[in-house]
């Protein structure tokens, strides 16, 4: 636990004591006993904290995340946006591994797609809506947007991330994604995506050696910014970075294909995000790209 978090915890422990039955018992006993009671509550919280990002037992967050044959290998670009956003806020969520054909598991939460976040069992769906929900609900924690201007610009980047990053990467890795899926999901993925592209997944991916050159070129606006500042969000990453990073992490998890050259500033930026939050994304299984 960091000092700040420890301080926050101590403050909330004190407030629990002040407002509880325990307070009635110890009220007449003086400040030393009240402090001891607060420390006992704090110890109780601390023993429940399982990781750096684990929070108090009052919090209940669950995240449906897309996986394939390996349940410990989440790969959706949109779920990765949410994973990074949760870590940025210092929140942990229980992972609920979800596969393409398990529609009935998320249908009751009003969605056919993931991510689906449950907060105290209330669903929040679509990665952008989840980010804004976390920003507003946990407003006292590190900001995902850095104010309303940042939120507005991130909205545009969200669309750029969907179209230029996810859309740009998809034809480069599409047939590799299949190798991560079991037979039922692979059949669903092939049928639904071949209908979307109007050709076989292998045909879509056959032009990837030329396609990756065009993709790298499309990153030039981001590359120019990264020559002047370490992150899209400025000195430290924020949700704008996570939007774009989600796409790269999706590719890293599902495909050995090298999207970036090692001397590209975008490559160096991706390395830093792989290392963020104690290497959370790098520790997640993936290919050495
Ligand atoms: N705009 C949505 C997109 C979510 C999305 O497309 N999720 C994919 C996984 S990467 C999904 O659940 N697809 C289900 C399917 O294709 O049936 C968001 O940002 O959350």
Q: What would you note in describing this structure?
A:
By secondary structure, this protein is an alpha+beta fold. Among the domains are: 46 residues, no CATH class; 136 residues, Glutathione S-transferase Yfyf (Class Pi), Chain A, domain 2 (Up-down Bundle), CATH 1.20.1050.10. The chain is 59% helix and 7% strand. It has a 4-stranded mixed sheet, with helices on one face. A hairpin with a 2-residue loop joins strand 3 and strand 4. Helix 4 crosses helix 12. The chain starts with a helix and ends in a 6-residue tail after the last helix. The N terminus is likely disordered. Bound molecules: glutathione. Glutathione (GSH) binds next to helix 4 and helix 6. The site of glutathione (GSH) has 11 residues, from helix 4 and helix 6.
Which key terms come to mind for this protein?
single chain; 289 residues; alpha+beta; Glutathione S-transferase Yfyf (Class Pi), Chain A, domain 2; 4-stranded mixed sheet; 13 helices; globular; binds glutathione
Mean pLDDT rating: 86
Q: Name the poorly predicted regions.
A: 1-55
Query: Mind summarizing the main beta sheet?
Result: 4 strands, mixed
Number-wise, the strands total: 4
- The DSSP helix count reads 13
The CATH class name of the domain at 148-283 reads: Mainly Alpha
Here the CATH topology of the domain at 148-283 equals Glutathione S-transferase Yfyf (Class Pi), Chain A, domain 2
Shape: globular
Order the strands across the largest sheet as they lie in space: 2-1-3-4
| Head-to-tail CA distance between termini | 32 Å
Tell me the structural class. Answer: alpha+beta
What ligands are attached or bound here? Answer: glutathione
- Oligomeric nature of the chains: single chain
Helix content: 55-70%
Indicate the proportion of strand residues.
Answer: 5-15%
């Amino acid at each position: 636990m960091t000092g700040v978090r420890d301080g926050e915890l101590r403050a909330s422990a004190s407030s629990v004591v002040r407002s509880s039955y325990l307070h009635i018992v110890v009220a007449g006993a003086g400040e030393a006993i009240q402090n001891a009671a607060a420390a006992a509550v704090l110890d109780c919280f601390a023993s429940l904290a399982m990781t750096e990002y684990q929070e108090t037992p009052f919090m209940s967050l669950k995240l449906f995340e897309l996986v394939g044959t390996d349940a410990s290998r989440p790969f959706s670009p949109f779920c990765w946006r949410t994973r990074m956003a949760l870590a940025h806020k210092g929140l942990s969520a229980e992972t609920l591994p979800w596969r393409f054909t398990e529609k009935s598991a998320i249908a009751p939460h009003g969605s056919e797609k993931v991510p689906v976040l449950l907060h105290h069992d209330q669903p929040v769906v679509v990665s952008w809506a989840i980010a804004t929900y976390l920003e507003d609900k946990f407003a006292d924690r590190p900001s995902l947007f850095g104010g309303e201007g940042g939120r507005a610009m991130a909205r545009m980047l969200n669309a750029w991330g969907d179209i230029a990053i996810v859309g740009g990467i998809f034809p480069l890795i599409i047939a590799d994604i299949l190798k991560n899926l079991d037979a039922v999901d692979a059949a669903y993925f092939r049928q639904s995506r071949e209908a979307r592209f109007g050709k076989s997944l292998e045909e879509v991916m056959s032009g990837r050696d030329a396609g990756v050159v065009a993709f790298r070129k499309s990153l030039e606006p981001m590359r120019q910014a990264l020559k002047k500042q370490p992150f899209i969000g400025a000195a430290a990453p924020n949700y704008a970075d996570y939007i774009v990073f989600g796409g790269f992490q999706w590719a890293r998890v599902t495909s050995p294909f090298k999207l970036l050259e090692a001397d590209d500033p975008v490559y160096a930026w991706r390395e830093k995000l792989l290392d963020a939050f104690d290497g959370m994304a790098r520790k997640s299984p993936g290919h050495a790209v």
